[in-house]
Amino acid sequence: MQDDDDSEMRALETVIEMKGELKAYLRMIDRSDAPIPVAEMREAVGIRDLVSVNRELEKQAGGEPFNELVVGHAEVLKQSAIAKLSASSALSEPAQQPIRSASSMSMSPQTAANVGPSIPPESNPARPPEDPRDANGKLIPAFELDRRTVKRPASSQLRLSDVIPTYLSARRLSGGANIARDLSTAESRLALFIELIGDHPVDTYVPADLQAFVNYMQYWPGDNNQRDPDMSPWQVIENNKDLHLKPLAEKTLQEGYLAVIKAAIRSEITAGGFTDPFAGAKIRIPKTAASPRKATPIGTSKMNTLFRTGVESGLMEDIMLPLLGHLTSRRLGLLIHLRGNDIREQFPEVWVGQVTRLSQINGVWTTVPVKTQDSERYFVLHDFLKEIGFIDWAGRQGSNFLFPNIMKLVDPSKSGSSYMQRLFKKAGIKPKSGEETVGRREVFHSLRGGNIQDMRDSGVDPRERRVQAGHSAGNDEHDLYGFDVATEKEARKLKVLPLDPEIDYSIFRGLDFDEIARRKRVAGPPKRK
């Protein structure tokens, strides 16, 4: 029944548009010099308004950029336009109330503040006016309204709360060591979005909803432990308006919150048959969201201290992970998942390592947190790893992990990162006082960047550098031709790259890897056997 009513309204609107345009053209031909009656002028304005609204709705349906204010108030604007066209029309009955002028729709400063960027009180969920204006009669931006109560178009789609379980179930199929934690985090962030923006049919969300959410979240404390669990989300935000607690970083806001909201809503597009409501939208990120911090190079003296500290610990992960990061430019999360079988002789006397997304762990096939498909390509191992006996030892491990002290833990990636942070700190590589505020940091990722720089200094081709580091081969059409892994010729250059003469690599020679592999990480200083 609703579909029939909508079809009838759309048909009548089309007829009215055509009739109005024809009448206007006829008048221009026959009475070009005659004065235009007020009623006819009002009718022309109605036609113009109706056409404008329909054009914006078509843009939204087609995934093109559209006017959020017009689309957000489409029904009200349509009724207003139809009322101007035909007061006797049945469609104009809902608009019998007089159309308010700008002056009559003006609000007092107090009223405007209530529907502005300040947080709407939970105890007052009353729907605001459909076209709220400030004290000067100007429309208040859609993203500053209480998005929970803003009128939305009729829809037959599921509400977001009904879509979330299916979305999470689909993500669960991807598996992974951290899937339970990831799903819990995603669910809590989606619940927060519903709390602040409202639970609406998925095809009725618009970019203004994301912008409003971001505007609220500029006050959301970034540290989970600093949020009072007894406070509601609204209270947490209100309590941190003075920003006494550090807010979310830009990367967390973009990749942690907005990404999961967009993904959940878009997950219903195929089943629901609607267009992407956020296509082409540009969301402004508040200045309070800290930009991503860049890793900075580690000097040779600090590198020597780091390697020496790792060897002195006697633990395989502390000894070899920094060296592998330094010589391969690969991410920590990938390196800790290496097993003996992942290292092989790709070409005569050329050894490579490769970790793929699907892996069997403790008899169960699961996905490894490989960041991209490009990361699954093999990477060339430097001859130095062969010289010190590490490659031979790794080959004897078969399907066993090379870093079991980390892989036996519940969350290997998180634990591995924590262990490396402790090692860096123990080696004296940590931010100096005040450096946290300016974004300088020397971390494990610095080792990766250092190797990429070493390859650049040695004249390695840009495409070869990207392939070795696990990046995309390139965006240029010519870069995409050929193999997406290192060829034998390229691999032979990478395996003998010059080592920095100022770094003391000799401390890795003569290590007994079988003995080191037996050492377990325990609380307190590691014990040597």
UniProtKB/TrEMBL annotation:
Compositionally biased tracts (Low complexity): 87-98
The keyword S-adenosyl-L-methionine is annotated on this UniProt entry: no
UniProt keyword list: DNA recombination
InterPro entries for the chain: DNA_brk_join_enz, Integrase-like_cat_sf
The keyword Zinc is annotated on this UniProt entry: no
Compositional bias segments (type: Pro residues): 118-127
Highest taxon in the source lineage: Bacteria
Positions of region (Disordered): 87-137, 454-475
Biased composition (Polar residues): 99-113
Compositional bias of kind Basic and acidic residues: 454-467
Protein name per UniProt: Integrase
Protein's organism: Rhizobium helianthi
